[in-house]
Structure formats: C-alpha cells, structure tokens
TrEMBL record, chain B:
Source organism (scientific name): Nonomuraea longispora
Protein name: ATP synthase gamma chain
Gene: atpG
SUPFAM superfamilies xref list: ATP synthase (F1-ATPase), gamma subunit
GO cellular component, one term: proton-transporting ATP synthase complex
Keywords for the protein's UniProt record, in alphabetical order: ATP synthesis, Cell membrane, CF(1), Coiled coil, Hydrogen ion transport, Ion transport, Membrane, Transport
C-alpha cells in the first residue's frame, strides 16, 4: 500500500485502485507499506502521484528516500529555517525550507 | 634553399601541435558523450511518466479548458526556442540548428505570424545579435551540462510569455535529437498549444484509463502542464548536449586526420628540399674541387 499526501489530504492506495492523478503537497512524506519487509518512506517535495494499470508512479521535483536522508544536515536546515521565520514572519522561502526539512526528518524516522 | 627547409619545419611543428590539440578535444568529447548519454537516459522515465499523465488528463477531461491547452483563434506571435551550443569546434552542429530555425521562421511568417526567437547557447545568441535580431530571451553557460533548474527557468519565461495576452501564442523548439553516436537530427517540435495525438501514440492501450483527480482535473492540469513543458525543454537540452559532444568528436576526428595527412605531405616536401640541398652542396663541392684540380693541372 502506498500512502501519500495530496493537497486534498492523505490518500492510501491499495492494489487494484482506480486510476487517480493527484497533486502532492510541498514537503510531504510518502510511505510504502510492503509485505514481509519494513516500510519504505521518502520525503517528496511537490509533484504528482499517478495510479494507472496497477502501477503507482510518483513524479516529484525533489525526492529523497528516508534511508538516504542526512539527518544532521536536515536538522541544521530546519534550525536555520526556523530562525529566519522567527526573524521575519512573512519569509515564504524559509517556511518552505522548514517544511522540506521536517519532511526529510520524518521520512528518516526522526521525531520533529 | 635553407630558408625553405626552415619554413617547412616550422609549418610541420605548428600542424603537429594543432593535431595534438584536436586529438585531445576528440578524446574529451568521446568521454563526455557517455556521461551526456547517461544523463539523457536518467531523465527518460520522468518524461515518459509525465507525458502519460498529461495525455491522461487531457484525453479524460475534455471539459477542461486550460489556457495552455487551447489554440488561440488568431495567433499573432510564435516563440521559437533554439537550442545551440556554447562553444564551437563542433562542425556543422550550430549551423544545422540555425538553418532549420530559419526554415521554421519562413514557414511561420508564411502563416502571417511574427517570430520571437528564444535562444540558448552562446553560438546562437551571437548569431542573433550579429544580425541584430531581437530575442525574447537568451540563456548561456550550460549547453554542455544542462541542469533541471536551467530548463525550469526557460520554461518559466516561455509560459509567462504564453499566458501574457501580448506575448507569444505558440511555442516551438528547434533542437538536435541524439539518435546514435553517428546520427543526430535537427528536429522541430511544437510544445504549446498541446498536441495530444503526437504523444506516445505507440503505447496506447485500447482505452486510456479513466482517471479520478485530486483535487480537480483543472488543478491537476494547472500544476502538471508547466512541469510537462519543463520536462520537454530539459529533454531537448540533454539531447542537444549529447549531440553537441558527438558532433564535436566527429569534427575533431576529421581535423586530426587532416592534420596527420598534411603532416605527411609536408614531411615529404621537406625531405625533398633537404635532399635537394644536399645534392646541390655535393655538386658545388665537386665542382669546386674539379676547378681546383683543373687550375692545379694548368699550372704544371
């Protein structure tokens, strides 16, 4: 089963799901639940999920598998983004940065 | 005679050093083709999927009228993205692209459209500035190794201009398609307004799946189409990069071959000149010795 976060909310896709095309949110975490194996998590920043012919494809501009996340770097990025949000409330870039960093940390299985 | 010999030696040396340079360029280009090809391959799945998704949306939701999909009733301006290289030494690569772009310009002007060129690559930009043609946009510095961000920037400019009422009404791309190491073709593609028939006609399963959309077809299209244009431009840039290296390798190979041939001819000529000089010296010495001998004989 694939769980993704679209702009409408979370969507879970089981085998034999009807074809869907969804827009993913910025800084979401995609989870793939596998039988017999552990879950696979990835931080996905924007993009689309498309389900057709029993195939799920995720098109993202930037994506990172949880196991590949550099936790220290992500934490560092989050701290920096939060500092600049505190300094300037309307800093949209920093807000996105913070979202992305949080998604990366969550994908890596860290508490945020 | 000595002067001619020196001259030939100097020419041989200069040809030799040129050959060294072109040979090195050839080797560099060969190694770069492989990497350019890998980058091209890596971008392929994304393009395939995004094309499939766009086809899905457009063929499913006929009711969706997105400004990017509808052909304007009376187009006035057409934007042409011309993909050239930053550096030369690649044979007819840029000339071919520019010739095709000129042909397209003629075709569009025949339809009564004003053509706005958008140019990437230093060679194309210079070509246009030299002819004092106004450009809608120009980008340089990444022809050998285009990044996705570059494609994004170009797509943004094109889409903004497309959405603008006074901007362009059509977008075409003229670029070089990489078929193999030996074959590269210049292709002209229309990106917008969308031509759905053109995309992936080979892989159509009987009925395209009926998609549900999250949140709505219009919203999906709104964010999908810019990505699609980006991806098309990115592919064009990558293909062009690989083609450029292939063209460069070929040009440099023939340059090296020509230099070697020239070196052979010059060496021959030089040997002849040297031989002639020696022969002349011998005959001079012999003649001198004979004259001395004769003079000595005459005294006695």
């Amino acid at each position: 089963m694939v769980i993704a976060k679209t702009v409408d909310g979370e969507i879970g896709i089981m085998p034999q799901h009807a074809p869907v095309l969804g827009v993913l949110v910025e800084g979401g975490v995609l989870r793939i639940k596998r039988e017999g194996e552990g879950d696979l998590a990835a931080a996905v920043h924007g993009g689309f999920i498309s389900v057709a012919d029993d195939e799920v494809s995720v098109l993202a501009e930037v994506a990172e598998l949880g196991s590949e996340v550099d936790v220290a770097a992500a934490r560092d990025a989050l701290d920096r983004a939060q500092a600049s949000i505190e300094a300037n409330q309307e800093d949209a870039d920093a807000a996105i940065e913070a979202k992305r960093a949080r998604a990366r940390l969550r994908a890596a299985g860290e508490e945020v | 005679m000595g002067a001619q010999l020196r001259l030939l030696r100097r020419r041989i040396n200069s040809v030799k050093s040129t050959a060294k340079i072109t040979r090195a360029q050839e080797l560099i280009a060969s190694s770069r083709i492989v990497r350019a090809q890998q980058r091209m391959q890596a971008a392929l799945p994304y393009e395939r999927e995004i094309t499939r998704a766009v086809t899905g949306v457009v063929s499913n939701a006929a009711s969706v009228d997105h400004p990017l999909t509808v052909a304007k009733d009376n187009p006035v301006r057409a934007g042409v993205l011309i993909v050239t290289s930053d550096s030369g030494f690649c044979g007819g690569f840029n000339a071919n692209v520019l010739r095709e772009a000129e042909a397209l310009r003629g075709l569009l002007e025949g339809r009564g459209l004003e053509v706005v060129p958008f140019v990437t690559g230093r060679k194309g930009v210079t070509w246009h500035t030299f002819r004092q043609r106004e450009m809608g946009g120009q980008w340089v510095g990444f022809s050998r190794k285009p990044a996705y961000a570059d494609a994004k920037e170009i797509a943004q400019t094109l889409i903004d201009s497309f959405k603008d009422d006074n901007g362009i009404d059509e977008i075409h791309i003229v670029s070089t398609e990489f078929v193999s190491m030996l074959t590269q073709n210049v292709v002209v593609k229309r990106v917008l307004p969308l031509e759905v028939e053109e995309t992936e006609a080979t892989e159509t399963t009987a009925i395209p799946p009926y998609f549900e959309f999250e949140p709505t077809a219009g919203d999906v299209l709104e964010s999908l189409l810019p990505r699609y244009v980006e991806s098309r431009i990115f592919t064009a840039l990558l293909q062009s990069a690989a083609s450029e290296e292939a063209a460069r390798r070929r040009a440099m190979k023939s340059a090296t071959d020509n230099a070697n041939e020239l070196m052979r001819l010059l060496t021959q000529e030089m040997n002849q000149a040297r031989q002639a000089e020696i022969t002349q010296e011998i005959s001079e010495i012999v003649g001198g010795a004979n004259a001395l001998a004769d003079a000595a004989a005459g005294k006695e």
